[in-house]
Write a structure and sequence with these properties.
By secondary structure, the protein is α/β, with parallel strands linked by helices. The protein has one domain: Rossmann fold. 38% of the residues lie in helices and 21% in strands. A five-stranded parallel sheet has the order 2-1-3-4-5, sandwiched between helices. Helix 3 links the parallel strand 3 and strand 4.
Length: 115
Amino acid sequence: MVSDPIKILIVDDDEQVLIELERLLESEGYHTTTAWGGGEALAYADQMQFDVLLVDEDLTDPECDGLAAELKRRQPCACFLDMHTRKNHRGASAHRIHKWKHAEVKATIRNFLAA
């Protein structure tokens, strides 16, 4: 029996990030859904269950105020990962990843799914 693929929601307002992460993660066998902003992300969160939520911490969309908390409320079983772009990011944790470091993105997702 074939299991369902891991479902990942990617939320970012940078088209290049969405395209690159979608390609990267789909090449790993994951099913991805991309959202440009808060309203779209919440609509997807109401339509399907995700295993991983990748959300840019610096979204410029005004609908994104409180997005992280609301996504976590609507998707309590999903692994939530903040994406950042800072070279010297303070407060690094297992739940924060650099969105342009593709090896880090893949490894972090694999580690959370294995846990």
